[in-house]
Amino acid sequence: MIKEQLLESRLCSAFTLAEVLVTLGIIGVVASLTMPGLMGNYQKKANITAMKKAYSVLNQAYMNIVREQGIDAVSMCPTNDSKCLGDMFKSELKLINSELWVPNGGGVANCWGDSTITNAGEQHYCTVSADGIVYDFDMEWQRTADRINAYICIDTNGPKRPNKFGKDRFTFVIINTSITPYKSYDLTVENYPSCKDGDGGMYDNLGCAYKYLYNDN
Prior knowledge:
Layout: H1 2-13, H2 17-69, H3 73-76, H4 82-93, E1 95-101, E2 124-129, E3 134-139, E4 150-155, E5 169-175, E6 178-181, H5 208-214
Antiparallel strand pairs: 1-2, 2-3, 3-4, 4-5, 5-6
């Protein structure tokens, strides 16, 4: 008698099929609401990690160039000669494809691929490394006291989306013998860089590399 009562009690306390289905439905709804946010956060961190790696590689490459050449690239390359600048990094970055292109004049296949880039109208030098990172070199001036010498924009995952500054695209600058994340066009003015985490346009996010490297993620 006691065994039968215990068995009956256990059966009564079990979940019904309807209750199980409702529970699974709730779990599915919660997952559908939270997964996009989790995936977006994961992708953001992955792009930031790739950006930091590219920055480290760029710095090491430029240190090697300065050491081997005995002079920095901005002293060797004429003003607006972006090909000269990019070619100096070829062997150091293991670049597999290089091509001159004009922003707003059409993209380069398997390279930068659109017109959202600084200083539209000038020739840039687009390159792809063996690890799939796209580098866009834009030589500006030889040595100047108050302005950036050159820009290096990167796309951490190549032609894959989202192709937006602040998400998978980031901007660095060469100032004489050093490479730093973009902070201010005018070096005589302290200007905290803009970064809206990919929202807005290019100029709203040129400072994202600086933010992610030196402030927060």
